[in-house]
Specification:
The chain starts with 9 loop residues before the first strand and ends in a 25-residue tail after the last strand. Helix 4 (152-164) runs parallel beside helix 5 (182-196) and helix 9 packs parallel to helix 10. The chain has 13 helices and 15 strands. Strands 1, 2, 3, 4, 5, 6, 7, 8, 9, 10 and 11 form an 11-stranded mixed beta sheet that branches. Strands 12-14 form a two-stranded antiparallel ribbon. Strands 13-15 form a two-stranded parallel sheet. Helix 5 links the parallel strand 6 and strand 7. It is an alpha/beta fold. It is globular, with a radius of gyration of 22 Å. The protein has 2 domains: 83-308, TIM Barrel (Alpha-Beta Barrel); 333-421, PGBD-like superfamily/PGBD (Muramoyl-pentapeptide Carboxypeptidase, domain 1, Orthogonal Bundle).
């Protein structure tokens, strides 16, 4: 197999758009360079070097204009439409925008998600002229960036650059590299929100099975000040399960984060047409406005027909409406999320991602005070009551003594949860592509 090596071009990120103290620019200048080594091919998407042209990133400390939002195109949620992801633009209808527009119209695609950045580098394929041309054709254009967490502040500037270029929304593709990186995730989201604003539409596209990734900081990316939307990569065939099972598993864990879920389905690896159609039907049954698909360059003619043909609603189907149940010895970010809500409700406990005796007692106390059956389990009724509270705001730090969260109110400064050191159970979407340039 051949792998394209070296830099294929990182478009200069003009950081002067986002003014910082002079000393900070020196740090960014060192961090924001395009690696000349071979790309690192991540397991399930997005990582690696970018396509076509460009020059090394330069940092110029000049005043910036405000981040340019396309308010007309963003008037409604661009994710609430049929969407198609584009990894390498030149490999999707040859990068010919007229052909892309014609294909989108033919198959009812109204939003395209185009890769705009990888780590600390922008991709030249995402630029203002391309975005403007697609806007003139009536398409929404979302940017997506693959992030690693090694240089989170720089990655935030890469995301903001795509917003400046006219993106209607920004999608964060964070996967295995971000597991355990609570501090980095918070630094990234905090800076990104300062750059693009608190209301700009941002989505997380991550692993669908939250319980498989106990160290992944879902509670940061989808927590206060994080992404408004959740776009889990629900690649049923890649996972090795059914369409029905991927929906039930994904929604039971993801819905506790209280973000609108927009399923991301697969057309790569040529799944059966009937499965693609059922994925669309299940989306309606689960209350999602629409779905998007990975990805344009790997879709066959049969895939395009299956994702666009008229379908009816599922008859006699009742979607799973349950929350994942937590009990003693459970560990992971789901426990962190429950503990943050318990603390907000006035319970005294450590936010450590471990469901031990103290958390068990806190749950019992919460249940007793809210007229719930007292069993110490965080099940359907307890989640429903807990989620009426906003989670406490946490500032995660790597150092410091063990601190107990007291109650709702001011931001709590806490050490990174113990669960951040746990290993993933498995990578459920190992072959979905998107990592730099494809292997041939």
């Amino acid at each position: 197999m051949r792998v394209d090596r070296g830099i294929r071009g990182c478009r200069a990120l003009e950081v002067f758009r986002f003014p910082l103290p002079v000393a900070t620019f020196a740090v960014l200048a060192a961090a924001m360079t395009c690696a000349l080594a071979a790309p690192a091919f991540a397991a399930s998407g997005g990582a690696g070097t970018g396509p076509s042209g460009g020059s090394p990133i330069k940092v110029k400390p000049k005043p910036k204009p405000k981040v340019r939002h396309n308010h007309t195109a963003s008037a409604s949620n661009p994710l609430a439409n049929r969407g198609m992801w584009i990894w390498v633009l030149s490999s999707s209808d040859g990068g010919n925008l007229s052909n892309l527009v014609a294909g989108a119209r033919r198959y009812g695609i109204t939003t395209v998600m185009i890769k705009s950045g990888d780590g600390t580098g922008t991709w030249s394929q995402f630029n203002p002229s391309m975005v403007a041309a697609l806007h003139r054709s009536g398409l929404r254009v979302c940017a997506w960036q693959y992030v690693y967490g090694d240089h989170p502040i720089t990655e935030a500037y890469v995301g903001a650059a795509a917003v400046h270029d006219g993106a209607d929304c920004l999608i964060i593709d964070a996967e295995a590299q971000y597991e355990g990186k609570y501090v980095a995730a918070q630094a990234y989201m905090t800076r990104l929100r300062k750059l693009v604003g608190g209301s700009y539409p941002i989505a997380l596209a991550g692993f669908p099975y939250v319980d498989y990734h106990p160290a992944f900081p879902y509670s940061v990316f989808l927590g206060p000040g994080g992404a408004q939307y959740n776009t889990p990569q629900m690649y049923w065939a890649d996972i090795g399960t059914t369409v029905d099972a991927v929906y039930a598993h994904t929604f039971s864990f993801n819905r506790i984060y209280r973000r609108s879920i927009y399923p991301l389905g697969q057309v790569f690896n040529n799944p059966r047409a009937g499965q693609i159609k059922r994925f669309r039907q299940m989306s309606r049954s689960y209350g999602s406005d629409n779905v998007s698909w990975w990805d344009w360059q790997e879709a066959t003619a049969g895939d395009w027909l299956a994702l666009s043909q008229p379908i009816g609603a599922l008859r006699g189907f009742a979607p799973s409406a349950t929350y994942a149940t937590l009990g003693i010895h459970a560990r992971g970010d789901v426990v962190v999320w429950a503990q943050e809500h318990l603390a907000s409700a006035g319970q005294r406990l450590a936010i450590d991602g471990s469901f031990g005796p103290a958390t068990f007692k806190a749950v019992e106390s919460f249940q007793a005070s809210h007229g719930l059956p007292v069993d110490g389990l965080v099940g359907q009724a307890t989640w429903s009551a807990l989620l009426r509270y906003s989670p406490i705001r946490v500032r995660w730090v790597h150092r410091g003594r063990r601190i107990v969260a007291l109650s709702r109110g001011a931001t709590q400064t806490l050490p990174v949860p113990q669960s951040a050191r746990l290993h993933a159970k498995r990578n459920e979407i190992p072959g979905s592509g998107g990592a730099g340039w494809p292997q041939r």
